[in-house]
Each structure stands twice: as structure tokens, then as C-alpha cells.
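Researcher: We're teaching a course module on how sequence relates to structure. For the next exercise, students receive a sequence and then see the predicted structure as C-alpha cells, so they can try to spot secondary structure elements on their own. Here is the exercise chain.
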Amino acid sequence: MNRACLALLLVAAPLAEARAQAPAPDLIVTNARIYTVDQNRPTAEAMSVRAGRIVAVGSSRLVLASRGSDTQILDLGGKTVIPGMIDAHVHLLGLGTALRTVDLRGTTSYDEVVARVAARAKDSPPGTWILGRAWDQNDWADTRFPTHDKLTAATPDHRVYLERVDGHAGLANMLAMKAAGINASIKDPFGGHIERSATGAPTGIFVDAAQALVERVIPPATRDEVRQATIAAATEMNRWGLTSVQDAGVGRETIDVYEDVAREGKLTVRNYVMIGSDDSTLAHYFRRGAQSALYDGRLWIKSIKISADGALGSRGAALLEPYADDPKNNGLALVPAGRIKQVGLQALRNAFQLNVHAIGDRANRTVLDEFEAALKEVPVVDHRFRVEHAQIIHPDDVPRFAQLGVIPSMQASHQTSDMYWAGARLGQSRLLGAYAWRSLLDAGVVIPNGSDLPVEKTNPLISFHSAIARQDDHNFPVGGWFPEQRMTRDEALKAMTIWAAWGAFMEKEVGSLEAGKYADFVVLDQDIMRVPPELVLRTRVMSTWLGGVRVYGQK
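Model: And here is the predicted structure for the students to work with:
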């Protein structure tokens, strides 16, 4: 035997022995078109999974060679597989609660809102609270804020509070206002606004911080109700292909419930929690320290959420210049000057991420200024501070995101929800810096994409479609709204997978289908990367898998 053959045998023998000793995979996915979001292997036919993690990705022939007698084979007949989708900005408990309250989404008039609430009142004991969510006066023929009168007349025996779609305003009936002790003498709180009649009497509309005047008297959910809402929300997310979410502004009691549910193995999404920013909550979690991948990768607790301003739809977004349709109004600042810097310094010193809600151009500039000041005092290269929403940005501030290493965490579906009336709020010139994904990408940053659910619908493909088409679900407007700001399909897929993972320090665990990562993936009935844009929203999730276990779909 020559030396070359001997050397080959010496190498091949241990390799063959290693293959023989390696345990067989629990699951093999084969005969699929897999978009891995791995730049070294963008597509594949098959992958194998063992103990919840991906073992190998490649051709069906090679991956099937590792099968064992107990390996489950999932032959997808050419169907499309993508990484488990990640929503970079949600309110998980808000979704769970919304599933049980009066759903006001899609109402086309105030009368329809009143009718839905009155129907619920018929089945509710007198004196109880009726809660609802998701009305939007911009969808009605009369786009003015409603007043409580019709609602009060229809529900004289119930306390009613209805949140606007963005969560930044609410409508209370008279009985709810009486329960809260609200009358004409009450003053607007800092960061809030009460709509009033010509006589000064509250009309029932409470904007941003003023909502707390009513919410403080609404009976809180019990711990079991929070637990059930958490499980219900996760189940609903799985139905739409979500396997990870980033949960904005969560209090300590709710996080305690999340931990219980995760510990029980009943949290079927990976939740990256942004804690509330009150001092007591910050102190508690700073003492505990940053937490990653708790309970088999179900919970991360290492970031903070602050709201710098309100929302555009309720004219609470803080603008540099007044609203075009309300010239005396520049919006609302929800935190005092210097607070973002103060919390930013604490975050940097404790290895926490800081994520700040900023919608208006004034709020975005304030956040960038205070981030810059904090980073000058405590320079940390890989801080990954984020601006949540980043909807309206002055052109001078676009390059600052890359210069400061700040991530714009955006919701593409907000653009297609807001485009009908955003021009009335902002005027045409400011629209050039609104929902400016391409401008930000070209400046050198990545954009994690989300929904802000329950503000928007749970389906993440709505944001994918908005990102590539800048059109609504009726493919309006023709050619797209400011189409020069579109993302490519590759960017749109990354925005809801690996970029979202990177924006939450999760990229080593999820976001792409690579060996060593959690086997989180989604099976779709059509190829969203190749079908015409107008067909994307017809795509159906066939099954959702978390750690190699099916959490949605037929058995």
C-alpha cells in the first residue's frame, strides 16, 4: 500500500468512527426550499435537529445520511422554510389582554364603536368595567376626536375605557370619569393632555400621561389573568410564525409571571424583555444583573424602555415645528430633559441596553443628543442602544444613527397604516424624513422590523409586504408610497430575522438557520422571496417550530 492510500485510511477511519458514534438527529427537515439567512449558505434543501438545536444544513442527500431509526422525517414537498420570525417591538401582555377585550379595530365610525361596546354591556353585570382597544378616528368620515356623550348614553350602568389603536390616547365614558374623580377643575399632567369642551369640561379623551388619571382606578388583572393572557398571546403569535419577540416596557410583576410561565415550559416564544424605566424597577434589575437565555432560551432581561414622546395619530409625537393640522401644537415630551442621559449612563454601567420610543423629529433629536452625551461619559463600543419607531427624522439626524451606533427599530406596517393621513399631520416636506428605511440603511445601519402589536395586526408578513412594496393590503397606492424608501426582499427578511436578533443581542442563538442555533423555523405555503408582492399577504403559515418542536400547525 502506498503512502497516499495509507494516509487516506488513517484520516478516514476516525471520521467514519466519529460518524458512527454521533447520535442521530431527532428531526430532519427535507425536500424544502430553506432560506437560511446565513450569508455563507443562503439556501438549502434540508437541515437536521438534535436536542432543540440545528446540527447540519445542506442538501437532502447529505443530511438524510445522518438519520437514525427514531429520527422524525419532515418531507415538505418543496415548501418554503424561513427562520422563525422575530417581532422587534411588541406588547405581549397587551396582545393577551386585547384578545379578551372589545376589539375596535376596523371600525368605520364612532357609532360602530358605541354599538360594539353596547353589545358587550348587555352581557356584563352593571357597575363593572368594559375595556376596549384599537379605535382610530382617522378611519372615520369625521376624523375629529370623539366625545363621551354617545358612549355615556349607550352605557349608563358601566364604566367604560377604550384605548386608541396606538395606546397613546383613550376615551372614557362619564361613569368612568366620575370613578376617577375627573371634572373641569382637573389640570393636565406633565406629558399629558385632556381634551376639553368650550366650557372646559373634559370630553372623555385623555392623551398620553393623562390616561393614567383613568387607568389608576381600573381594577388590575389578577396574577392568574396575567398568566392566562401571556399564554394566549404566545399561542396567537405562534399561529402567525413568530418564535421570538421583543417586549417593550414591562413591569416587575408581569416579568415575574413571565418567569413562572417560562419555568413551566408554557412560554412558546423567546421573549426579550425591555423593563419599565421607573427607578425602583431599574434598581431591582440592576442588582440582579443582565440575564440572557433563561429557561432554555425563553427569556432575556437586559434592556430598558423609555417613552420620549407620544404618537402621531393622537398628535402627541414631539415635532420640531407645529403640526400642519394643529398649528398651536408641537406634541408632547414625556420625560424631562436629561432623563434619557441619566438612564443611559446607568444602563452603560450595568451592561443593559437602552431603547427609547421616539416618533417625532424633535423626540428623535433629543434621544440622539442624550445618547451621545451618555456615550461620551461612558464610551461603550457595542452598546446597541435603540430608538423605537424612529418614524419622523430630520434629514440632519439620519447619519447620526450610524455615527453613534444607534439602531432604528422600526415597524414597516406603521407606514402603511399612517400614510393616508400622515401628510395632513406633517405637511409634504416633512414626509421626506418619515418612515425613511432606505435613507437609514444607506447611512450604514440595520433596521429590526416589528409591528408594535396590538397596535398593528400580529401577522409579521404585513410588515414584510410593507417593507418591499410600501403598499397596503389592497396594493394601494400604485407604485408604493414614497417607493424610493423601500427595502429589498433580502433586507426585509433580515429585518425580521437576523437583524432583529442582532438588535437584541440574540444573534448567537436565533435569527438564522445555522448549526448550533436553536431550531426555530417556519413552514410557508408559498415562497415570499419569489412570488409577486401583491401575493405575499396570501401566504399561509403551515407550521411553526420552536427548538425543533412544533408549536403551531397540523400534527
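Model: If you want an answer key for the exercise: The chain has 20 helices and 24 strands. The radius of gyration is 25 Å.
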